Amino acid sequence: MRNLPDDEPPAELSVVDRTSAAPTPRTLIDVLRATAAQHAESGAIEDANGTLTYAELLDAVAGSAAELRRAGVRRGDRVGVRMPSGSRGLYVGILSILGAGAAYVPVDADDPPERAALVFGEADVAGVLTVNGYEPAAPP
Fold first, then answer.
1. Which of 106, 54, 112, 58 has the alpha carbon at shortest distance from 78?
2. Distance of CA 95 to CAs 13, 14, 17, Å?
3. Is 58 helix (H, G, I), strand (E, B) or coil?
4. Which of 40, 47, 56, 67 is the most buried (most CB within 10 A)?
5. How buried is 127 (Cβ within 10 angstroms: 0-12 exposed, 13-18 middle, 19+ buried)?
6. CA–CA dist 78, 129 (Å, integer)
7. Strand 133-136 versus strand 103-106 pairing type
8. Which residues contact 70 (CB under 8 A, 6 or more apart)?
9. How far apart are CA 51 and CA 39, in angstroms?
10. In whole angstroms, what is the distance from residue 75 CA to residue 65 CA?
């Protein structure tokens, strides 16, 4: 190994800083808004009930997020989700929780109630979103 002067680091230790080339940070809701702006009438979600366009999805998410906020969901809260997989309601619900500024904690609708109670308790959720709507958690 050859000796290098003290002020010259070996090439294999040099750091490449490409942070200026990184894209601007954005959330999933930012991506949804941008996609809806560019492709408003394109299909976003399709299920047995038909297709929601991006414009319709964005409207549904905004309305549901506002309902969650009125129900007490705040930025930084965790909200449990227990809905059937693949349903329109599941996707709108998850996006609505994110739109309200909260995080979602999913538990499969087919899992036993004991598992849901354990996961939601450990996560200290503010409430749970199901096919019947949002139910705030009982106070401790």
1. 106
2. 43, 42, 34
3. helix
4. 56
5. buried
6. 11
7. unpaired
8. none
9. 14
10. 11
Closest CA to 60 of 34, 84, 82, 32: 32
| Separation of alpha carbons 51 and 46, rounded Å | 4
Give 42's DSSP letter.
S
- Distance (Å) of CA 75 to CA 6, 29, 58, 90, 140: 50, 14, 19, 20, 20
Which pair of tokens denotes residue 17? 């800083």
> 2: pLDDT confidence band, cut at 50, 70 and 90?
low
Q: CB 50: neighbour CB atoms within 10 A?
A: 10
pLDDT tens string 85-139: 888 999 999 999 999 999 999 999 999 999 999 999 999 999 999 999 999 998 7
Interhelix angle 28-38/54-70, nearest 10 degrees = 140
Cα Dmax for the chain: 72
